[in-house]
Each structure stands twice: as structure tokens, then as C-alpha cells.
Amino acid sequence: MTEWRYWLNEQRGTLIGLAIFLMMFAVYIANHPAGLTANVAQTAANKGVLLAFVAMAQALVVITAGIDLSVGMIFILTNCLASWIVVGSPLATTAGVVGVLAAGMLCGAINGLLVIYGRLQPIVATIATGAVYFGIALLLRPFPGGSVNEDLADAVTGRLFGVVPASLVLLAAVVLLVWIPFRRSVAGRAAYAAGSSEPAAFMSGMPLRRGKFAAYTVAGLFAGMGGLFLTFFTYTGEAAYASGGGYTLWSIAAVVLGGVSLYGGRGSAVGAIFGAFAARTTGDMLFVFDVDPLWQPLLQGVVLLIAVSIGAAGLLRVRNRLEWFR
Amino acid sequence: MSETSEGPVAMRTRLPQAFRRVDRAVLTAFGCILLLLFIGSLYSSNFLSLDYLLQQLKVASFLGVVAAGMMLVILLGHIDLSVPWVMTTGAMMACAAAGFGTLGPALAIPFGVVCGALFGLVNGLAVAYLRIPSMIITLATNVVAQGLMVLYTGGFSPSDSAPAAVRWLATGHVVPGVPNAILVWALISVAMVVLLSRTSYGRSIYGIGNSERAAYLSGVDTRRVVMIAFILSGALSAFGGVLLAGYASKAAQAMGDAYLLPSIAAVVLGGTSILGGRGSYLGTVAGVILITLLQSILSVMQMPEAGRQIVYGVVIIAMLLLYGRTPASR
Lengths: 326, 330
Description:
The structure holds two protein chains of two kinds. By secondary structure, chain A is mainly alpha-helical. Chain A is built from 14 helices and two strands. The longest helix of chain A has 27 residues. Chain A starts with a helix and ends in a 14-residue tail after the last helix. Chain B has one domain: ABC transporter involved in vitamin B12 uptake, BtuC (Orthogonal Bundle). In chain B, 52% of the residues are buried. At the A-B interface, α6, α10, α12 and α14 of A face α7, α11, α13 and α15 of B. Chain B: Its main location: membrane.
């Protein structure tokens, strides 16, 4: 096989995610009363980027064949923290942003330590740390409130040159400056190898622990960026349990839609971004088609159910019946 | 069960006969219960009174019923994250059925449980036959159940209260002094023990949890076993919801949200391996009591919600680190 066919095979999930998103977005825009104006694009981008950050975080952990049920809570915790410290003079704001991102990384690192060195199952460990993170968020913000540096917030959620949504540029910058270097580093390759086949990776002398730890930590960083962006978007901090749980849920859906294998080792955070935008568009479509608000939760659930069923059903690829049973 | 758990044989034989078949994790869990009672009794002497203990067991019984279903699924190496809204569905449907004619009140409880079993059936079909990871499909059915209930209630909490039969089941007394909910939990517990240790179905659950391939090659219809386990889990979740509705005397939205984490935690703290195949029902009972006591002590100490969540998470992580670790792979 030639070089590009290898590349195509490796990126298949990501490209399918992109195709799903483009198709849904086209239907959405075609039915939107205003069409594709800068305003519509800006709103869609801002809402999509929120979920995209959380989905990228989830993708990193899923690639190592784990799962992080605390991403939504890290997102909420960093949102509450940002509503306290990302204020004031440019210097203070910068320090605040760094502090929020560091807090996100710390949360991710704790998850990583528990899973790698504590040898706990990711599902239970992250459910428990999620409870702790939510508790801390509630301590920070017993009631919704707080504020954020509004100049920065408006710049990040606004438009560049009056056309391009700034949030998309920010997201692209994060992909270029964090995801791609990570993907190409030894740690990143080790994270993929750990998800693909841990024994084989161990036998080949990959730095598995370092790779997995890096994946969990960067996941915390992405979730922290999401929380920061939520604060820019809403100007407040709120410890909402349902919202955290919802983001965790949709991050998994986005990861599946974006072609990241839940068994680990396949897919990319870029795919998760497309998955996140596709997932967001389902919600917007219900709005455009003027669906009764009471029906919306059910329809979203059904869409989610169908999406994960198609994305996750491994039945069609199996040749030997014994491979049903992993 | 102890025969599938690996422990140092020499240490095991030195233990008294009665303890030899009991897991180390189960003993630790019961030890922690005694420790919690001791800490509580330092705080207030009420903690050792019979009334208080019976009250705790009554509250524990709702979690106990849910955790029994969760345990079946976890023993298979799967997980059921649809518990919150399946519980709510069971409770709401039982309350709704009571309003239909003369037969309604009699059929209220079975109807609620059947609704839960239907969600379990969807989960089971998807996991067993379509091979969709259980974590994903149960999260999705949870959202669908939520959507259905939002649609049914019109977006706000329904006013229909729990029928008399449901309330009697949760709070009435057949045996003087002992609330019925405890008896219900005891009956389900006996059924669980028999199911897990005395039937071929129970043994095949352990078998599948250890190696589904091996179980399949030994002639077990593994897909049917997995599907039935999910149906049982859905039915038991819904039944737990019905009992809870009887206790609170009405069904409310989000009433099941507080039960997902505790039910998983109870099973895991009781020594059941989250990877499946290993664990005893006695441990789950211990885990349920442990978590209920912990919650009770935290609320008696008037710990705010934030502190409770933190303590709760930290305690679960600490206990998992004590005995919930997967074996070192190298």
C-alpha cells in the first residue's frame, strides 16, 4: 500500500466524523431562517467549542483505553474557579488564566495517578474523583455568581475581522500548539500504544506509565480550557450538577461520533472536535425545526442512542464468532 | 465467592472455619461499619439505639434493592449507568398506573417494575446481541428514559402521589417494629444468594465475568445470560424507585440521581471486582449499610452538600485503594 492509503486508513474515523458534521451542519443552515451569517456561525462556534474542549479531554483518555467520567466535573470546577480569579488588571487576569489551567491539569493528574499507580479501574476512580471535584466546585460557588474579565471574554467569544469566530481560531491554536506536539511526542505515541495493546507496548519498551499519565494530565488541561471558556461565555460561575453530568455524557457521544474507538488506540482529538460540533448541531436542529421543547430531551436521547449504537456496534466487523467475546 | 479469589492459602487455613469462606474485603467492609458506628456513638449516643439502626436499615433497603441489580451486571464485567432515570420511571409509572380505574392500584407495583424491565431489555439486547459497550448504551437509555419522563410530566414534577399499596410496602409494618422495606430487601437478598450460589444461572454469571469466551465454549448461552442480567437490573432499579416513592409518598423528577454513585460504590466496596467474575452478595449488603451509615453520619454532623460530596469521593477512593486494586500486571 502506498503512503497516503495508510494515512487515510488511520484517519478514517476522523474523516467520518467530519463528514457527519458537515452533512448535519448543511441541513441545519439550509433550514435556518437567517442562513449562514457571521452571527449564526459565531453562536454555533461558541457553543460547539465548549463541548469540543471537553470532548478532546475525553478523547485523550479514551485513546488509552480508559474513560473519564469526571471531565464534566473538572469543567464545572474550573468554571467556578475562573469566576473568582480571572478578573482585574491584565496581569492579574493572566495569572488567573494560568491558575485555572493549572487546576485543570492537577485534576487530570490526580485521575492519572489513581488509575496508573493506584491501579484503580478508570470508571469507578473517575466517578469518585468527579464527586470530589464537584464538591470543591460547590464550595467555591454555593450560589451562581462571580465575574470575569469582560474585555478578554468578549475578545475570545467574539469575531476576528468581523467574520471569523475567535473561538474557532482559539480552538485551532490549541490543536496546533498542544494536541499535535503531544500526538507526535514519545509520550503521545505511548498513550496510543497503551490503548492499542498494553502487553505488546510493554514488551516493546514503551514508556507506558509516562504516556498514560501525560494523556490524563493533558485531558485535565483541555477540560480546564473548556471551563475557562464557559466562564467567558456566561460571565459567571455555577456549580450545576446536571450540567457537569450532561457534558460528561455528550463528551462520550462526541468521541464516538468523531471516530475514536472506545476500546482505545484509534482516533484523534481532532475527530472528537468534529463529533462535538455534530452533537451540538443535533440540538440546534431541533430548534430550527421548531420541535416542541417538551419533546427535545427525548429526541436528543434517541439521536444519542442511534449514534452510539451505529458508532459502537462492533458486530459487523467480526469474522470469527469468538471475537464477540473480548 | 472465595473459591474464585486467590489468596495466600497458608494464611487462609489459619483463620477460623467460619471466616475461611468470607472474603477479606467483606471483613474489611464490616469492620468499617463497626468503626463508623463507633465514631457515631462518640458523637451521639443515639447511634447505637435500636430505633436509629432500624431507621438506617430502612433507608438502606432502597439502595440495597438497586445495588442487588447493579451487582449482577458488575459481576458480568458490565455496568448499568441507566439507574437514575429507570428508578424515576419505575416510580412515576407506578404512581400513574394507580390512577387507572379499580384495577390500577393493584397493578401499580408490577407495572412500574415491568417498565424498568423494558429498559433493562433494551440495554440487554444492545449489550449482549449488538455488542455495544454497556457503559455507552446505558448512558444513552438513561437519557431516553429522562426524555420520556419529561414528556410524560410536561416538564414539571407530577402531583400524583404514591398509592396506598406502595406506601404500605415501604413504610408499613407486617412484623411489629420492623418496616416492610427491610423485609422486602431481606427477601430479595435471600433470592440473590440462592440465585448466585445455587443455580446454574448464577454460576454462569461468575463464569462469564471471568471469561466470556471460556463460558461460551463450555456451552453457556452467554448472550441470554447477559440479557437477563440487564433485565433484572432494570427491574430491580425500578422496584427501588417504587419503594422510594412509597417512602417519600410521591414520585419526583431526578429522585434517582442520588442513587447511581452509591449503588456502584456499594457493590465495589463490598469486594466485587469491577472487572467482573469475583465478589459475594454478603459484601454488597455490607457496602450498602456502610454507605448509608456514612451518609447518615455526615448529615447528622450537618456537613454541607459540598463537604459531603468531597468526603464521599475521598472515602470511596481510599477504600478502593485498600482493596479494590487490580492486580499488578507485571
